[in-house]
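Re: beginner question about structure tokens

> Can someone show what the tokenized structure looks like for a real chain? I only ever see the sequence side.

Sure, here's an example I had lying around. Input first:
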Amino acid sequence: MIIDNRSTGTLQSSHAGEWRLITDQVMGGRSSGVLVMDQYLGRNCLRMRGSVSTANNGGFVQIALDLAAGKSMDASNFTGLVLEMMGNGERYNIHLRTSELWLPWQSYRADFTSSSKWDEIRLPFSEFEPYKTKKRLDVGKLVRIGLVAIGRQFEADLCLGKIAFYNDDSGD
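And the corresponding structure tokens:
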């Protein structure tokens, strides 16, 4: 099931909701970033660029998508997420949030290393680790997906061409 294939030409996703940029400035940090629609190496993409700074207890730049406008989305029929993206060779995180998480720093996290060419990355839900919560990931209650540059000082540059749920049977 496609979440976003960048067909809208806006920050609006193909599925529902609108992508937004969040930085550690919401908590006093000094990271900065931009989120733009772009075309890179012949593909439409959502591009996140920024400087991650660990100054003042900060350390993240994120683009996030609320999946179901105040409700949760049931992804229990799927194996995981597939992303078509390219970047600058840096390591990034994907954060999932469920309706069971209340504190803003809680999430389920998986990481990946970006490639300097368009690449497909598959992340099974089983690879997502709980962060600051003891609850297990319940993919029947997903509310948000975030692509995050986090945890160390670096320059972020990530282009998202497509994000979807996949299952082992169909590949998408």
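Each token stands for a local structural state, so reading them left to right follows the chain. The chain has a mean pLDDT of 94.
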